[in-house]
Amino acid sequence: MTHSRSTSDTHDVQNISTPVGLQLSGKYKKSFAYVTIKDRLPVILTRVIDHFSRNKEAIKNIYGEDSIDEIKYLIGFVSKLKNELVTNKTLKPLRLHDYTSNDEADEWNIYLEHRIDIEGEIPTWFNTIWLYCECYMYRVLAQEISLTVKLSRYDPFEDEKQANFIESISSISALGSYVRHVVSTYMIDDTEKKETFRKLLNVCLWGNRCDLSLSAGSGASQSGDPLEILESLKENIISNDWENVWNVLHDTTETECVTVDIVLDNAGYELFTDLCLAAFLILKQFATKVRFYVKKYPWYVSDATLHDFYWILEQMGYLNSHPDLQFLSKMYFDFLDAECWSLEEEPYWTSPYDFTKMKEKDTKLYEKLSSAKLVIFKGDLNYRKLLGDVNYEHITTFANALGDFCPTNIVSLRTVKSDVCVGLQPGLSELLFEMDDSWMVTGKYGLIQASILMDKSNTSSELSTYSEENVKTL
């Protein structure tokens, strides 16, 4: 029988911050990993239990009487999972489907065996690496839901994501009006294009503050005009490579199809900001194709799925009191129809591996990213996975921290919400700690960090072009 431990007798716990050079883990009590596992993750699971309990009648009306038993089962499963987390039990293999192939779920079980080999025992919530156990929580929840019959595609976080969009509508409307003006205005001057790109990139960065997993699902909407506050946030970007990104996109030596990939983070307001940047890239001819990478399962409360993407476009179209958003909704659907935009659902994003293992574990995805001129990684989790969740010295360069993960030109847009960060000037992190001990977990500070390859050639096949002229027909 496997010995289980409580947090009070968790072995190897140290009352220190994560040592430099090691991955974040709950065994370091002065790390955000410990705080997350102890406080935030149990709250998120409690909210899932409350969701099913509170909405069981509404769910039954949609999914049928048979869904009631499935709701009861899921409430029991999540309650047990929460108890195992707070009492530091061992992580268990994912249950697999009996009749369908589920190679990605099986990969989680293979990885569990790998962790056992590394750690010399079965991993427990606080003693294993944070990136693994946190992702495991969302993945095992998704797996149990997928094993039901009536609720196999149910998203327990959907209401919160949709509420984030609706509660942020004033900001969305203000940004939508600006973007409609931008895409409808013929721009000749590169200075004007560059300044517009800077603004939209910054809006995308600060949109990342709307993270429901950071707030444990209690709400993270945006208010006010996001463009008006950009200057006041300028000093909060503590590492800023935006001009290097502009230079990559502005390089017109490539005459074939230019693809930009966006690895999405949150749905709701943040996703809307990503759509606005992508529209600018297409209509101002910095890209002929934008590929959006969504999550295959509900993930980290607010991460964008395929359903979330289409819901936002449809919701924009229903808003009769916001004609600019209706205009953009039609244009964005046209982008999808013209295949200038595409939605990509890759299982690697919800696998147990960080991005340093992608070349080995998913060669096809690595090659796919390599075909893009630029890959934009959104958010804190993607940043952690880019760096292998290692606590590097803060003055380590972004490119060095990436190691051999260099499929193409990369930029990370991330508000700092966990205690891993690189690319800072000497002395800056010390100064920030003097001002605020918790500066790394508040989302107050932002990073625009790029790794640029020299002489990058694009090998994508030619695709249809959607330009400013097409806007006139909308």
Structure, described:
It is a single chain. The chain is built from 19 helices and seven strands. With 474 residues, it is of the alpha/beta class. α11 (269-283) links the parallel β2 and β3 (289-294).
Write the layout of secondary structure elements.
Blueprint: H1 32-54, H2 56-63, H3 67-86, H4 103-119, H5 130-146, H6 158-167, H7 169-184, H8 190-207, H9 230-233, E1 237-240, H10 242-250, E2 259-263, H11 269-283, E3 289-294, H12 306-318, H13 323-337, E4 341-345, H14 358-361, H15 363-370, E5 374-378, H16 379-386, H17 398-402, E6 409-415, H18 428-435, E7 446-451, H19 468-471
Parallel strand pairs: 1-7, 2-3, 2-5, 3-4, 5-6
Antiparallel strand pairs: 6-7
Helix pairs in contact: 1-3, 3-5, 7-11, 7-13, 8-11, 12-13
Notable features of this structure?
single chain; about 475 residues; alpha/beta; 7-stranded mixed beta sheet; 19 helices; 7 strands; disordered N terminus
Count of individual helical segments? 19
Measured on Cα atoms, how large is the radius of gyration? 22 Å
Instruction: Give the overall pLDDT as a whole number.
Output: 91
- The biggest beta sheet, please? 7 strands, mixed
How many DSSP E strands?
Answer: 7
In short:
With 474 residues, the chain is of the alpha/beta class. It contains 19 helices and 7 strands.
